[in-house]
From TrEMBL:
Gene Ontology biological process terms, A to Z: adenosine 5'-(hexahydrogen pentaphosphate) catabolic process; diadenosine hexaphosphate catabolic process; diadenosine pentaphosphate catabolic process; diphosphoinositol polyphosphate metabolic process
Catalytic function, reaction form: diphospho-myo-inositol polyphosphate + H2O = myo-inositol polyphosphate + phosphate
Designated name of the protein: diphosphoinositol-polyphosphate diphosphatase
GO molecular function: bis(5'-adenosyl)-hexaphosphatase activity; bis(5'-adenosyl)-pentaphosphatase activity; diphosphoinositol-polyphosphate diphosphatase activity; endopolyphosphatase activity; metal ion binding; RNA binding
Length: 173
């Protein structure tokens, strides 16, 4: 674990920073996704997510991060997949689908750092994310693949990371 001001970072046995995120959708059609402005680059959009806290399950971290960063609550759906970012920072991110049921007028990051949020059609969101957050665009591409009729309705998941236990997945159901 590394310590940042007001935050504890957790790492798995392979040295990957453990993260969680949600693709937040306006409804169950999953055709409009909510993006938030980046804290580092306020003119750029990102998928809400962040680091897991010690002893926190991925699904709990994903819901907490969405509440803090996007000011929304909703029904947590399926685990879309576990994505690894190997380039400069070793991240392993659990990405869930969430259908938004409540939108707060003011939320933690809007008040503290002026974060904004906006709904985008999925195709537009992929184009927006591709230039500066290609891994976030990949989440949405994976969603499209998992929902396509060519896979007979099966969800395509990357293999779980080593040392991942089934209890984590069960705890989120």
């Amino acid at each position: 674990m590394k310590f940042k001001p007001n935050q504890t970072r957790t790492y798995d046995g392979e040295g990957f920073k453990q993260r969680a995120a949600c693709l937040c959708f306006r409804n169950e059609r999953e055709d409009e996704v909510l993006l938030v402005s980046s804290s580092r680059h306020p003119d750029q959009w990102i998928v809400p997510g962040g680091g897991m806290e010690p002893e926190e399950e991925p699904c709990g971290a994903a819901v907490r991060e969405v509440y803090e960063e996007a000011g929304v609550k909703g029904n947590l759906g399926r685990l879309l997949g576990v994505f690894e970012h190997n380039q400069d920072r070793k991240h392993r991110t659990y990405v869930y689908v969430l259908t938004v049921t409540e939108t707060l007028e003011a939320w933690e990051d809007s008040v503290n750092i002026g974060r904004k949020r906006e709904w985008f059609p999925v195709e537009e969101a992929i184009k927006i994310l591709q230039s500066h957050k290609p891994v976030h665009a990949e989440y949405l591409r994976h969603l499209q693949l998992s929902c396509s009729s060519s896979n007979n309705g099966n969800i395509l998941l990357p293999p779980p990371p080593p040392n991942d236990n089934a209890a984590r997945a069960a705890a989120c159901r």
